[in-house]
Amino acid sequence: MHMADALLSPAVAATMYVASGTTVGLSVKKLTQDENTQKLPTMAVASALVFAGQMINYTIPGTGSSGHMCGGMLLSALLGPQAGFLSMAVVLTIQCLFFADGGLMALGANIWNMAFYGCFVGYYLIWRPIMRSRLFENLGAEAARRARIIAASIIGCIVTLQMGAFSVALETTLSGITELPFSAFCGLMLPIHLAIGLVEGLITAAVLTYVYAVRPELLRDVEVSEEVRKGSSKSLRTVIITLAVAVVVVGGIFSHFASSNPDGLEWALFGNEEAGYSANMGLDEENFGVSSAVSETAAGIQEKTSFLPDYAFAGSDNPMGTTVSGIVGSAMVAGAALLICYAGHFFRKKNA
Amino acid sequence: MSQNIERSIRDLREMDTLASGDSPLHRVSAGAKLLVTVVYILVVVSFDKFNMSGLMFMLLYPAVLFAVSGIPVSTCFYKLRFVLPIVCAVGIFNPILDRTPAFPLGSFVVTTGMISMVTLLMKGVFCLMASFLLAASTRIEAICAVLRKIHVPSMLVTLLLLTYRYAAVLAEEANVMTQAYNLRAPGQKGIHYKAWGSFLGQLLLRSMDRAEELYSSMLLRGYHGEFYYAQGGSSSIGDVLYAVSWCALFIAARCVNLTQLLGTSVLR
After folding, report:
1. How open is the CA angle A137-A142-A146, to the nearest 5 degrees?
2. In chain B, what residues touch A97 (CB-CB under 8 Å)?
3. Cβ distance of B8 and A55 shorter than 8 Å
4. Rounded mean pLDDT, A81-88
């Protein structure tokens, strides 16, 4: 799910940097308040472990393929959401700098897509409510805890990976990189990540149940007192109701928007005719030129947020002429680049 | 499978070796290099998706840096194996969905979709080369010192440094474990699902214990929440010149299509 720089526009990348940066800042503040410096080596080792753990292949039974783990849920269950988030952020930074896995400018987006959902959403909305709930109580105390760990890991990994995949699709589409309509992009990304999420959930569950069996004190919220459980069996219900209401509201707004303006989503995401996009979309053009108050606002926002004014390839005065000089110029630059590389090689050899 | 881990360890070492080399580029201060890299990536990504010729000019920056630093280009391209498939997967739909003809090339008609796909790939490769050159010519301590200077929280920077050092240690340990596992389970691909939990779990628990020892030893050496960096002194005039001239060139290339200009002047 690591995004490359090329998949983002500067405006989207900057927004994601601000979002991730703010979360990093808040997490650091929270951890400093708790005077948790002794956690630092633990965090470092845990993120190094995620790093090493990602290299190990796990055989998926019944299939010939193998899975990897991602680590957001694992880290937040072990370290808590803030420390887990920072650890994931560091893992992603190292992967970006030293393994070229994900881009430097896309780092903000990658931290958001993989660390934020996995740690904060995964912990506050899934791990903690499930751990504090009375689910599986008929199995007996010990077995119930284990079942809760397994359920929380699997649900958590699937849900947070889906959110991450959705964000990747949204960020790429908002950046205007792909001609693929948003809905089709989601249709590609989400099912793939459903399978990945399931495998990851199983691996996370296996590791966490092992840790629970050997060193239960390392896991968060597993051993909770009766009062907390009593208080929060309500909170689980509240969380579920809140989520359900949110889904209905968002779904309602979405479908209203979509029905009042067919292809509204794509149109909103790709901008308007003046920006030079719709002509290049290759999709149903009738639906693009729709002008309304909303469209003007959107166009205004897009104009303001675009990093530098665009200048289009098509539509210049003399397309054929510019093309030829463009090709000639490109060939010269490529030749110069090669020459520079060889010159460097030559001089170094001479010096050595 | 264990080759996979070994390769990652080698990757990490290779970057360390490259970064501790010596060349004019290595001697430029980390701050200047970081700034130029960020500006370069921003400018490259901000190019219009059909402006292939304008973008082409940006190839000169990595070319000059590779030449000056002596960092092998092949190492960089080897690293593309992670990023390029994703960029290709996204870009491949452009020529299929966007068939607006742009210009003929003999009997073959180039469409705008093809141009936008090539531009996307170029952006991906260029940005990767820029961040690779930064990482391959700057030691992690120097990068961390700069991050501290621009007020990135000490906790995050220290975490980055510690994780970087520990990643190699744990990867080594994971490698030994998988090797031992493979030798005991010949003909098996990966780790059996019954051992999923205990395999990584054991590594995790041992590492947690190690972390406590690490913290004790840090305290005994006088750690109190802040690392001190030997690098990262004041920047020289050369560093300022390096940063300013590159940034100016990038912005000029973004505002004027220098490749086109070059082509036109030659054709005339």
Report:
1. 85
2. 131, 134-135, 143
3. yes
4. 90
Q: Where are the alpha helices (DSSP H) in chain B?
A: 2-19, 24-27, 30-46, 52-56, 60-69, 73-91, 93-97, 112-137, 140-149, 154-184, 196-220, 237-255, 258-267
Question: What is the pTM assigned to this prediction?
Answer: 0.76
Nearest Cα neighbor of A88 from A115, A127, A49, A56 is A115
- Residue with structure tokens 């693929």? A180
Q: Radius of gyration (Cα) for chain B, nearest Å?
A: 23
State ipTM. 0.81
Structure tokens of A50? 């995620």
C-alpha neighbours within 13 Å on the C-beta side of residue A208: 34
Residue, of A274 and A204, whose pLDDT is higher:
A204
- Binary contact (B63, A337; C-beta < 8 A): yes
**Binary contact (A326, B257; C-beta < 8 A):** yes
User: Is B118 within 8 Å of chain A by CB?
Assistant: no
B-chain residues within 8 Å CB-CB of A48? 162-163, 166-167, 169-170, 207
User: Cα separation of A109 and A115, whole Å?
Assistant: 10
Distance CA A147, CA A49 (A): 25
Q: Which of A59, A320, A325 is closest, CB to CB, to B189? A: A59
pLDDT over 70 (residue A33): yes
A96 at interface of B, judged by CB pairs closer than 8 A: yes
Confidence band of A3 (pLDDT split at 50, 70, 90): confident
Residue A8 has pLDDT above 80, yes or no: yes
Q: Residue A28 and residue B66: Cβ atoms within 8 Å?
A: no
Return the residue matching tokens 């990994």.
A157
A206 touches B at CB < 8 Å: yes
Query: Quick one: tokens of B79?
Result: 């690293």
| Candidates B63, B94, B264; nearest CB to A341 | B63
Could you tell me if A206 and B197 are in contact, meaning their C-beta atoms sit under 8 angstroms apart?
A: yes
- Which has the closest alpha carbon to B218: B179, B172, B166, B261? B166
B68 touches chain A (CB under 8 A): yes
Please give the Cα distance from A315 to A312 (Å, whole number).
7
Q: What are the pLDDT digits (tens) for A331-345?
A: 777 777 778 777 777
- Can you spell out the DSSP letters for B77-101? HHHHHHHHHHHHHHHTHHHHH---E
Q: What is the DSSP letter of B191?
A: B
Q: What is the CA radius of gyration of chain A?
A: 25
The residue among B35, B103, B134 with the most chain A CBs within 10 A of its CB, best to mutate, is B103
Give helix B196-220 / helix B154-184 axis angle, nearest 10°.
140
pLDDT in tens, A40-67: 888 888 888 887 777 666 665 555 455 5
Report the pLDDT value the prediction gives residue A330, as an integer from 0 to 100: 73
CB atoms under 10 Å from CB of A46, counted, come to 29
Q: Measuring CA to CA, which residue among B175, B144, B138 is closest to residue B9? A: B175
Q: Per-residue pLDDT averaged across A166-177, rounded?
A: 86
Q: Is B72 on the interface with A (CB under 8 A)?
A: no
Q: Cα angle at A213 between A35 and B175, to 5 degrees?
A: 80
Residues in chain B predicted with pLDDT less than 70, given as ranges, are: 1-3, 225, 229-234
Above 80 in pLDDT, residue A175?
Answer: yes
- Using a CB–CB cutoff of 8 Å, tell me whether B38 touches chain A: yes
Q: Of the ranges A253-267, A304-318, B20-34, B201-215, which is most confident? A: B20-34
